[in-house]
Design goal:
Elements lengths: L3 E8 L3 H4 L3 H11 E9 L16 E2 L2 H14 L6 E5 L3 E2 L21 E4 L10 H14 L7
Parallel strand pairs: 1-2, 1-6, 2-4, 3-5
């Protein structure tokens, strides 16, 4: 049974590797979130290390667009979930890319939990990674105070 009304899923795996795992990731998220699941794409981002991860632009390539279509199709199985892909950092191909917003983006339902597909080399989710994830999420989006 889901325990959180809303959640933020930060996907960090490169999209080609992520697509085959997407169904299981969504199923895991659906066990924890029962209403709104925001999805933030940040392929290639590492949550390990001392530096605070920053949101970076993701080019809106055909691979990204296909992945978004695949994600929504996979989410249709979980009818209780309102899945919303956040497009804040998705950019069209252009010679001029405006900088990403530096302020925290407000969401209709502030996430109560942050989830990720990121795995450490040993497969565990140890405390520093969790702390990095929470700092990253709160630097990008409005979240509940007791995230």
């Amino acid at each position: 049974m889901a325990v959180f009304r809303s959640g933020l899923l930060v996907l960090t795996t490169p999209l080609a590797s992520l697509a085959p795992r997407l169904a299981s990731i969504l199923t895991s998220a659906a066990r924890l979130v029962n209403h709104t699941l925001y999805v933030h794409l940040q392929p290639g981002m590492s949550l390990e290390g001392p530096a605070q991860p920053q949101s970076s632009p993701v080019q809106a390539t055909f691979e990204v667009l296909d992945f978004i279509t695949h994600l929504y199709a996979g989410a249709d199985v979980h009818r209780h979930l309102d899945v919303r892909i956040l497009l804040t950092n998705i950019r069209t191909k252009s010679t001029f890319l405006p900088p990403l917003p530096t302020s925290v983006q407000n969401l209709a339902h502030p996430p109560e939990v942050v989830l990720t597909d990121f795995q450490t080399l040993d497969g565990s989710q140890y405390n520093p990674v969790k702390q990095q994830l929470v700092r990253y999420a709160t630097s990008c989006y409005s979240c509940c105070p007791r995230l």
